[in-house]
Amino acid sequence: MGTSFESGGQGVQSVVTNGAIGLISQYTLDNGLRLVTAPAATGQVAAVNLWYGVGSRHEVPGRTGFAHLFEHLMFQGSGGVAKGEHFDAIERLGGEINASTSTDRTNYFETVPEHALDLALWLEADRLATLREGMTQEVLDNQRDVVKNERRQRYDNVPYGTAFERILRLGYPEGHPYHHPTIGSMQDLDDADLDYVLSFHKKHYGPDNLVLTVVSNLDPDDVHERVKRYFGAIPARETVAEAPNAALEGLIGGPVRDTVVEQVPAPAVFMGYRVPAYGEREFDVMHLVSAILGYGQGSRLYQRLVVERGMANDDGGSAADVLPFRYTPSLMLVTMIAREGVSGDELETAIREEIAGLADGVTEDELDRARAILERDHLQTLSNPSGLADTIGSCTQLFDDPELASTWPQRWAAISTDDIVACAKRLLAEENLLVVRFDPQETGEGTVEPEPADA
Amino acid sequence: MSILQSRPELGPPQPYTFPKPRHLSVGGGNVIAIDVPGQQYAAVRLVQPTAGAANEPLDRMGVASLTGEVLEDGVHGNSSLAPALEQHGAEWVCRVTWDSFITGVDAPVTRISDAVALFAEAVRAPALRPEDIVRRREQLVERFWLDASVASTLAMRAVGGQLFTGRYGTPLNGGPVQLREVTPEDVAEFHARSMADVAGTLVVVGDLSDVDLEALGTAVFGDAAPAPAAQVTPPEPAAGELPRTVVLDRPGSVQSALILAHRAPSRPEIDLPKADGMSDVLGGMFTSRLNMELRERLGYTYGVGCRFDLRRDSGVFLISTQVEAATTAHSVTRMFAEIDRLRADGPTEGELEAVRESNTVGLPVTYSTARSLASALVETVVHDLPEDHVDRLRAGFERLTADDLTQAARNLLRPSESVVIVAGDAARVEEPLRETGVGPVTVRDPDSLWS
Predict the structure, then answer these.
(1) Fewer CB within a 10 Å sphere, N or C end of chain A?
(2) What is the distance in angstroms between the Cα of A70 and the nearest Cα belonging to chain B?
(3) CA distances (Å), B68 to each of A445, B72, B128, B187, in order?
(4) What is the spatial distance between Cα B167 and Cα B57, in angstroms, rounded to a whole number?
């Protein structure tokens, strides 16, 4: 039950089309619930995926981490389900079950044997309609402790673990809903109270805020009937919750930087550039830019800094990516860790040279490779029932268009090397740059980090 | 009137049978395939069962893992393989285990011939340029320390050395010091002896309606010879008093990574449904006893689990978690208490039912992807299992009794032979751990573990 920034929904491979795409069915219940169905590539399973339109962007200062803490509480019992019973019921079916929270949504999912679809739907409907009846101070206290340990495990007890929250602090101004990470702060988690939990559920959890996707080989109309049976009588929210204003104009106003000297094994460079929101055409352009620059072993950063110059740690070709923020400008991130004997300054300079080089032009081959690798990832995601359900849920919740799951690659096909260079010139500029740098505690300025490799 | 329906009564699950694989003998190798109509993204795997890390000589520990990395440099060197595969929408797969060397590609079925052709030459005739090998080796050595700076990885890598002497005493990818000694010539020799001319078994899963399996086999096997039988030499245990506690000092750690480990029977020796069923009750599921206690009742951790790590010649049982530093000693106490309780009283009826159901009813979910079907076939090849292995396992779980699980707990859980490994802040956890009384407590500097 983690926090994540993945959003799926990047499009289907042009090399081949998945048999499922094109057979999507859509329904809207009277209470506003949007249901999407698609067939599974293997039989006897039902993948159930819920995208609620609530995430950490709805949090206000002093209440950070709440959407995610709440996600945990959704497993702690409701009107007809005891604490732990949801997990127990799905695990007994040998099913897969989990949830995750990001800035833009909260996602719950389970894949079960086909005969158990009704049980999965019933469990989801029960916590949507009656979570407030199952909530107690005791479970709140317990899950608060669990989430604090999740924060320790993912952020506080790992080297560079605070990089992401530092990046967000530099990328989004104080008070902006994307200024803080989804995991939230320890203080705010401590301050979470039961009344607020109850009001959060009332405010954000209604069928009108839900996209429910079912991938199975059942007749779509049959699935529709079942969903109506379990969810149909749950009333929509009385008022639609407003998200805090996330509008943001222009560039970052950089370069801005945060330099951290602490116990880390090697210097690390994290760079960010503000780019258009997920769904905008220029997001797609920058997605391709990031792949040309730093995704895959054919990317520039891998070829130049890992293979040729031996300056950066071998990350297998995962140095650059774009965060898919839907409701505010996104961030393109570049991350590399220095090799033994390479200083943070040297690595940072080398990365910036490679980024600057994009403005001098990219080749058709580079662009083709970037398209191919993004399409490959997408096709892999669609090739299993739970990934297909998640992608459809994403396209429907964020763009109100499940068919985007199949048409997205056409957006990449239409982008030219000229588009790439124009966007790189304008957006990968110093004025739009943030840098978070980690340097090991023991080293002085400009000296070589003594690695413990021979100890 | 309630807005909700009452809890649905489920009918019986549809009976599930693992898909019957197709077998082909091509040249010196075997092809095993499962046709999944509609699955447009195929999984292809080559199993070379004698090239695993367990057979590495002690002066070349890590040579298999390093070779696995170097294969990514392809036939032209310089990391050329991945970009070539990407053009076909394909992705390279390589997994070196103690018992086997597995390579492969995931690819759209429409491009499977092109992707497999690239794959075959990369496995059979890689460039193996010395400069690429040295670069990959130095990267692996540095990566070792980066990874070990994460508490859970550090603790996990220390398990082998606490339980075994010989090859298993050093992590699978070789210790950082030993790996430095592996030369480009060693890699070339390993590849020539264990991979270049060893045919192995090719696993193919996906929509095979337009796939020529014989041609794929020919492309991958060429005139390579049949794989020899794997050698089995059970390892000796490590010296030292048992039980005992080892603290890997990580000053300032706000959490402790905790592992409780002991030796277990080997894969061929163990009765898998009984062992895994028992492990599920203790810590294999979200609703298992350890998770319910340490996470859902005490709130000490984000999660805890346990499992068997089984090899041809040996096995390990381990519980692993990360807990808030202040709760370290109490977490250890609770782990032992849950082990003792399961050994004494066995499972409840509800737990037995959950284990039976979750390992039988859910098989369509487990095998809903090409990758998971391919993994099941790979396992049958590596451990020489019958092709209906999954169905036999299912039957084994269906037959389980409470007494089976109780006996498994008594025979397979060995608290008095355990080593507790703690990657955490010694200044905070050492004294409380002494008070828990799990044998002698020693504090080690992590940097000294692999020198």
Answers:
(1) C
(2) 15
(3) 37, 7, 11, 10
(4) 8
Nearest neighbour of B301 by CB, restricted to A87, A118, A149: A149
Residues B366, A385: Cα–Cα separation, whole Å: 11
Write the ipTM: 0.92
User: Is B16 within 8 Å of A248 (Cβ atoms)?
Assistant: no
Cβ–Cβ below 8 Å for A306 and B252: no
φ, ψ for residue B423, nearest 5 deg: -95, 105
Query: Which domains are present in chain B?
Result: 22-221 (3.30.830.10), 244-448 (3.30.830.10)
Q: What is the pLDDT of residue A452?
A: 37
pTM: 0.92
Token pair, residue B149, equals 């700076």
* A2-231 is a CATH 3.30.830.10 domain: yes
Residue A408 confidence (pLDDT) = 84
Tell me the residue type at A59: E
**Integer Cα distance of A318 and A291 in angstroms:** 9
Q: Are residues A375 and B89, on separate chains, in Cβ contact within 8 Å?
A: yes
For residue A147, the surrounding DSSP H or E stretch is helix A137-151
Q: Do B176 and A266 touch (CB under 8 A)?
A: no
Q: Which residues of A touch B299 (CB under 8 A)?
A: 141-146, 149
By the CB < 8 Å criterion, does B229 face chain A?
Answer: no
Judged by average pLDDT, the poorest of B1-5, B125-129, B242-246, B316-320 is B1-5
A93:B3 CB<8 A: no
Q: Tell me the one-letter amino acid at A438.
A: F
C-alpha B58/C-alpha B50 separation (Å) is: 16
A302 vs B contacts (CB less than 8 Å): 79
Q: What contacts B15, CB < 8 A, 6 or more positions away?
A: none
Please say whether the beta carbons of B65 and B246 come within 8 A.
no
Residues 6+ apart with CB under 8 A from A19: A39, A41, B38, B40
Q: Domain extents for chain A?
A: 2-231, 256-454
Residue B239, phi then psi, degrees to nearest 5:
-75, 170
* Inter-chain CB proximity B7 and A113 less than 8 Å: no
Contact B86 A296 (CB under 8 A): yes
Low-confidence stretches of chain A (pLDDT < 50) are 1-20, 443-455
Radius of gyration of chain B (CA): 24
What fold, for A256-454? Cytochrome Bc1 Complex; Chain A, domain 1 (3.30.830)
Dihedral sign for Cα atoms in the order B64, B70, B71, B76: negative
Q: Nearest CB to A149: which of B141, B145, B255?
A: B255
So what's the pLDDT on residue A21? 54
Residue A9: per-residue pLDDT? 26
A145 contacts in chain B (CB < 8 Å): 298-300
Cα–Cα distance, B259 to B276 (Å, whole number): 18
Compute the nearest-CA separation of B305 from chain A (Å): 15
| CA neighbours closer than 13 Å in the CB half-sphere of residue A344 | 22
For residue A380, how many other CB atoms are within 10 A of its CB? 19
Q: Which two tokens stand for residue B426?
A: 């010694």
- Looking at the predicted structure, is the pLDDT value of residue B282 above 90? yes
Strand (E) or helix (H) holding A370: helix A364-382
How far is the alpha carbon of B352 from chain A, nearest alpha carbon, in Å? 10
Residues 6+ away with beta carbon under 8 Å from B63:
B56, B174, B182, B186, B187, B190
Contact residues, chain A, for B362 at CB < 8 Å:
93-95, 112-113
Residue of A18, A84, A313 with shortest CB distance to B143: A313
Closest CA to A6 of A336, A319, A391: A391
Interchain pair B254, A157: CB under 8 A: yes
Q: State the average pLDDT over residues B297-324.
A: 96
Contacts of A406 (CB under 8 A, 6+ apart): A11, A12, A17, A18, A21, A22
